[in-house]
């Protein structure tokens, strides 16, 4: 009966919203989120399981699919899931971060209604509250092209997901307490590949065939490097963009980033190491899995292949080599290069500088000196119901102040259909990784030293890759172009989860005065209400 009610509600809602064409299919998914014992590094921990799995189930979709995901929270505390890289067109109501959504209470459920509108590629989901990400609850998202849309490579013999990232042996509650007490986290204890430690994963391939590996860094603190012993990687896709098909023997994947590579089993039949190791760290953490030929004649040959460690220029040059494939079709049949992003004048420049420091004797991180302080009500709800005193537009400046850090519920105002230039400026000695919800952007430039107006002379205005997460190297800058074509309240955050938790994030409120369903969907009928929005009405069907 409950499932019938959900189906009836979803079909009615989506038909009213006209959110999808009649031939866009629905995929109904039910998840139960629980705690369970896991031993990823040989030590018993309290992990977050989805349907009993760690990592959680993979989401399989095709462009324009409607995903109806009913999440039952069986944890003893509130819970939210967010969708790294899904654009949520006109629909920040479903973004799954605290600035847009009330948490799912313990023992309750919430049905996310998503459409992967005009998207392809490799992404992941993760829990966004209370440092839950350090306990699991993450999984891969795979969006395939529609059958009639050409893909710029032959269908692979298999499609694998690699969820890599650093990990702590301590329970997430202990890590959260450390941060709440104003202290920094220690160095991670190890790396995981698909939730497992050393030699915990085996990927079986047939000699002579080519396989797709979708690699996402779901870790907390560090970039990683990935390599396949004796094999090359052909890069074909980055966060929904088909790329120029460059070949790499080692690939850097920073926090929150996703890449697709093709690996051909063209070596003598044997087993080979798949290696991931931390970048820009001392010591260097390493973890291995096995690439197993189905006709293998033996074990991998030791030692596992080494990779880059602290070399920044090596990584910078590789990042610059990742370019858009201008002739390939994306989610639509028109070539990716048909949108000439470099010929459009930007209407606004936003410069964002990260910083670290102390506020009231506790460790904090900031953007343009503002350390984000969560409100008692989700910002999207406060905006919709016009609840005063929750946040103020313009509470974060467009440019670095280089002044003292302070706490604020920081929201930047922006206008629908503006075309903005954003420069991420990193004056610290550690690599930064930035993500913007609800958007993909063109990475037009990155370099060492301070950004200047003259830096624009070196921008790539032809074939910069479009993605949703980008790294900024130490004492360096990265510039992006972004059309503000998605109305809503959108989180801009550090993908370093300590820094995000302690304030290195803010919200971008993209506003359209039209107040039209053409620009933004109305509040969902099933929206959870909390804080100062409690007791209000959503809307009738």
UniProtKB/TrEMBL annotation:
Keywords: Signal
GO molecular function: copper ion binding; oxidoreductase activity
Signal peptide coordinates: 1-22
Pfam families per record: Cu-oxidase (PF00394), Cu-oxidase_2 (PF07731), Cu-oxidase_3 (PF07732)
Keyword presence, Signal: yes
SUPFAM superfamilies xref list: Cupredoxins
InterPro entries in the record: Cu-oxidase-like_N, Cu-oxidase_2nd, Cu-oxidase_C, Cu-oxidase_fam, Cupredoxin, CuRO_1_AAO-like, CuRO_3_AO-like
Domain Plastocyanin-like residues, every copy: 33-146, 159-296, 377-513
Entry similarity comment: Belongs to the multicopper oxidase family.
The protein's name: L-ascorbate oxidase homolog
Species for this entry: Vanilla planifolia
Lineage, uppermost ranks: Eukaryota, Viridiplantae, Streptophyta, Embryophyta, Tracheophyta
């Amino acid at each position: 009966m409950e499932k019938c009610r959900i189906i009836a509600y979803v079909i009615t809602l989506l038909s009213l919203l006209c959110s999808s064409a009649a031939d866009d299919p629905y995929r109904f998914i039910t998840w139960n989120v629980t705690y369970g014992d896991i031993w990823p590094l040989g030590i018993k921990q309290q992990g977050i399981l989805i349907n009993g799995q760690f990592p959680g189930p993979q989401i399989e979709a095709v462009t324009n699919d409607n995903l109806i995901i009913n999440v039952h929270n069986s944890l003893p505390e509130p819970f939210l899931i967010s969708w790294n890289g899904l654009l949520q067109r006109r629909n920040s109501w479903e973004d799954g971060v605290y600035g847009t959504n009330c948490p799912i209470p313990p023992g309750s459920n919430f049905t996310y209604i998503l459409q992967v509108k005009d998207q392809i590629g490799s992404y992941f989901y993760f829990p966004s509250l209370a440092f839950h990400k350090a306990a699991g609850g993450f999984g891969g998202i795979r969006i395939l092209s529609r059958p009639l849309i050409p893909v710029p490579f032959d269908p692979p013999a298999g499609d694998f997901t690699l969820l890599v990232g650093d990990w702590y042996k301590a329970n997430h509650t202990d890590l959260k307490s450390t941060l709440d007490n104003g202290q920094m986290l220690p160095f991670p204890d190890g790396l995981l590949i698909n939730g497992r430690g050393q030699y915990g994963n085996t990927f079986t391939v047939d000699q002579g065939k080519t396989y797709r590996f979708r690699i996402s860094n779901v870790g907390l603190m560090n970039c990683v490097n990935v390599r396949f012993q004796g094999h090359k990687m052909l890069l074909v896709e980055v966060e929904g963009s088909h790329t120029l098909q460059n070949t790499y023997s080692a690939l850097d994947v920073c926090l929150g980033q996703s890449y697709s590579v093709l690996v051909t089993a063209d070596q003598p039949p044997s087993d080979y190491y798949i290696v991931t190791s931390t970048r820009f760290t001392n010591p260097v953490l390493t973890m291995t899995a096995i690439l197993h030929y189905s006709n293998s004649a033996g074990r991998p040959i030791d030692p596992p292949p080494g990779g880059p460690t602290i070399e920044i220029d090596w990584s910078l040059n590789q990042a610059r080599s990742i370019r858009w494939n201008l002739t390939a079709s994306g989610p639509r049949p028109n070539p990716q290069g048909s949108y000439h992003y470099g010929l459009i004048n930007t209407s606004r420049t936003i410069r964002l500088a990260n910083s670290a420091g102390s506020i009231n004797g506790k460790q904090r991180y900031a953007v343009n000196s503002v350390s984000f302080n969560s409100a008692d009500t989700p910002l999207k709800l406060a905006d919709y119901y016009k609840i005063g005193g929750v946040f103020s537009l313009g509470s974060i400046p467009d440019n670095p102040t280089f002044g003292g850090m302070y706490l604020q519920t920081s929201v930047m105002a922006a206008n629908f259909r503006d075309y903005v230039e954003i420069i991420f400026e990193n004056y610290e000695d550690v690599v930064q990784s930035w993500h913007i919800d609800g958007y993909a952007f063109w990475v037009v430039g990155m370099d060492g030293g301070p950004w200047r107006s003259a830096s624009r002379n070196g921008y790539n205005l032809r074939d910069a890759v479009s993605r949703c997460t980008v790294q900024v190297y130490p004492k360096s800058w990265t510039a992006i172009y972004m059309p503000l074509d998605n109305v809503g309240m959108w989180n801009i955050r550090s993908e370093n989860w300590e820094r995000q938790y302690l304030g290195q994030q803010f919200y971008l409120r993209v506003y359209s005065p039209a107040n039209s369903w053409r620009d933004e969907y109305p509040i969902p009928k099933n929206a959870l209400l909390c804080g100062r929005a409690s007791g209000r009405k959503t809307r009738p069907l």
